[in-house]
Structure formats: structure tokens, C-alpha cells
Specification:
This protein is an all-alpha fold. The protein contains nine helices and no strands.
């Protein structure tokens, strides 16, 4: 269905705001710059989003929603065998970060700059992860009872996955000149890192794919 003009303007504002916030942070972002990049007047921007805070929260909510749909759904898909479930979750999380590579650094910077915002982020993350963590822990415990994997706290596992996936994007500007031909092809390098993360987690758990 084709978007109406009002929907197109709102979408243009959101896309411009995302670029502005990720590049400059909340404090550095300017609604005048967002309006210009979106091709709307400043007054029109405030018609759709009354304040910069409201616009920022919309962007953050959308990113959390996307992560919940694409990433956490994969980890929480109880229909899949555990190895496939974990592999899908790791790969989707990596791909989400790859598509939003400025997001981890942006979130860390915003938490330090505006600690009060972290409470809102915590609530969103808890609502997204609560059921998934319980279901995944149950699947891990059952696999451990069958002797297929080592016993592990799902929270530690998620920390391992997030650390492995996120670090490479945060550190890439530093790593690129140090790793020579390994980073010469950026896309290939990230595909190798994604595969390495999957292998590292599987080795950590000692998962037997076909017990």
C-alpha cells in the first residue's frame, strides 16, 4: 500500500532524526538540521513530534522493537532444536548490529551522558527479554540434563554473545589498520567474525549437533 503524503513526511523525519541522533547524540542533535534533512519546515517537524525528546524516544523505541522482532524472536523460538535456535539468534543479533553499527556506541554514550535515560532502556529491555530468557534457560537446562551441553546460566551466555558481537563494531575503527589484509574486505571480515562467534559459543557449550 502506497504511503500517504503525511506518512511519507513522518517517515522522512524519522529517518533524518535517526541519522542526526546516531551521529551527534541527543545533546548535539538539532531539530532544525533534522527538518532540513527531511525536507520539511521546522514547524512541520514540531507538528509531528512536539519535542526533541519525543522524537528521540520514538527512534529508540523503534530500534528496540526491531531488535525484539528480529533477534529475540530467534532465541525464543522453542520449535527449533537448541543448536539452530542459538545459531539463528547469534546471527540475527550480529546482522542487526551490522545494519545499525553506530547504535552500540550511541547507547553507551547516551547512558553515560544522561544516566536517567537508562531506566527507560532497562524497562524496554526487560519487557523484551523476560520470557525469552526463561524459555531459553529451560531449553539449556534440559539439554544439560541429557548430557548434550555444559550447564550454563542463560544470562552469562547472553553476555558472551553480546560482547562478542558488539565489540567488533565498536572497535573496528581501531582494529582496521592493525589487522592488515584480514580487514581489507569489510563485508568478508564481518562474515568471518559472525561465523567465529557462532563457533566460539558452540565450543563454549560443547553442543552436539546430532546427539
Amino acid at each position: 500500500m502506497e504511503q500517504k503524503p503525511a506518512q511519507k513526511r513522518e517517515q522522512a523525519i524519522l529517518e533524518a532524526a535517526e541519522r542526526e541522533f546516531l551521529k551527534k547524540g541527543f545533546d548535539g542533535a538539532r531539530t532544525t538540521s533534522i527538518a532540513a534533512a527531511a525536507g520539511v519546515t521546522h514547524a512541520m517537524l514540531h507538528y509531528y513530534f512536539r519535542t526533541k525528546e519525543q522524537l528521540f524516544e520514538r527512534i529508540l523505541d523503534e530500534k528496540m522493537r526491531m531488535m525484539g522482532q528480529s533477534v529475540l524472536a530467534a532465541f525464543g523460538d522453542a520449535r527449533l532444536p537448541l543448536p539452530e535456535r542459538l545459531r539463528n539468534g547469534i546471527e540475527r543479533h550480529f546482522d542487526f548490529i551490522a545494519a545499525n553499527s553506530d547504535l552500540p556506541r550511541f547507547i553507551v554514550n547516551e547512558v553515560f551522558a544522561r544516566p536517567e535515560r537508562y531506566e527507560a532502556m532497562q524497562r524496554q529491555i526487560r519487557s523484551l527479554m523476560g520470557v525469552m530468557l526463561i524459555d531459553t534457560q529451560r531449553a539449556l537446562d534440559e539439554a544439560a540434563d541429557r548430557g548434550e551441553i555444559r550447564r550454563i546460566d542463560v544470562r552469562m551466555l547472553m553476555l558472551d554473545i553480546i560482547s562478542l558481537n558488539v565489540f567488533v563494531f565498536i572497535a573496528y575503527p581501531i582494529l582496521e589498520p592493525l589487522l592488515g589484509d584480514l580487514t581489507a574486505d569489510r563485508e568478508r571480515f564481518f562474515e568471518l567474525r559472525k561465523a567465529e562467534t557462532v563457533e566460539t559459543v558452540m565450543r563454549r557449550l560443547k553442543i552436539t549437533e546430532n546427539p
